[in-house]
Please model this.
Amino acid sequence: MKYKVLYRKYRPDDFENIIGQDYIIKTLKNSIIHNNISHAYIFSGPRGTGKTTTAKVFSKAINCLEPVDGSPCCKCDFCTNFHDNPDIIEIDAASNNGVDEIRGLIENVKLTPTNGKYKVYIIDEVHMLSTSAFNALLLTLEEPPAHSIFILATTNIENVPITILSRCQRFDFQKIKVSDIVKRLKEICKLENINIDDDALEEIAYLSEGGMRDALSLLDQLSKNADKITLDLIEKQIKTISQKGINDLIKTIEDNDVDKFLNLVNEYRNRAVDYKSLIKKIIDVVSNKAKNYKINGQYNRLQFTDYKNMILSLADSLSKININVDSYTILEMILLDYFNTDKEIQKSSVEKEVKKEDEITENNQTNIDENKVENNNLEEFINIRINNCFVEAKKTALEQAKKDLKNYLTISNNGKTKAILEDSNVVAASTSYLILTTNNKHNVDMANKMSLEIENDIEKENIGKYKLVFIGEDRWNHEKEKYITNLKNKKVYKYIEEKVLESKTEINDVFDKDKVEII
Model:
């Protein structure tokens, strides 16, 4: 017996076996039960999501001699002879897109059905029809014979003229959920005696991108290459990366481990991992991390804007995979931007051991002071300065600080510090401390490590004596909300470590709305 590929062998013959499109199936079944059948439908959605299959089952159901709850009985003469029925006409618009083909169809529409109640015309990839073909079809769609029904299917609804869409009842098919695909694959593997691991099933479902047909085709292909389908087999055969591999790659960025990152990218390059699949998986992982950052406040070295910009850059890179440039070079350049490459931070362990305290002389004492923040925990430094700014935060101080920094930017010749401050905004201030926000996480780290240099330059220009701390806008929103909560709970902020004031500010003075501005 001739072998039949899995996606054809297990193509549903009734509504019950069509997965992932519950709302559409329910609506179509109800239209049959209540005899409210439209003269024209358009099914749009990604490939492999059941558009043509649903069209065929619907055609069978409306002609079935004994339908059961809107579904075909699959037992009557019409159902059993459905595939050889001349009343069901399927047309591929990709290869029959001219006006002559459509005119021939229109002539055929006038003929009454041979066996069933309706003559059904299924036009696949209808967006491929020419303009003249669409125009020829238009009048027939508007006033078809009572015995004719049109079902148009397309993966590109945007290219279908509005005049056609307005004459059809539209159903938008969605990508099938991974869990639904996995469930169906398990059933088929059991029927076909295919030995497969659970994580391999999930990988196939993920790679199918929401299309059941693609999932079955991939399963079919893999089942011919081994007695057991494993995740390792899929990675080797399909040139993809497991979810763990993607998580490891993202972790190198969060841990600021450049060497490990470059090694992983080179490994994927040498294994010829599919770039498109890799980028899509990275985007999925990064988007989940961005959501967790916003919803659960799960902080790490990267901030929400970093994740967001990473996603946008990676998505944009997909359009460049056909140009004559190594795709992995593009990936490296995009993701390396999210590492902190400050030489003082990236010192190797050998360099750290070689550098001894007795080698430090008075000539480089200034450098030691400037790098004081680097030698401490950066997060602790940020927390302390945010706290100390809130101790005496006042609206008048904020206004004065904005004027001072504006004056500094006007007169200073230090391009390095000016560039940082021009890209930052003062959001809270006391007479001694300023909190500034900036969008780029790399700029935040660099600015905090240069804080002493910036402070000294501001003081040198006779602008004022401030201690600065830089944070991202998302971090500021978090700190602002915490500040407001503490205000309501009457918490008194106290100076810690950096500077102890002899006089303490009263709680009402700290949080008085006329004196504090939160922006």
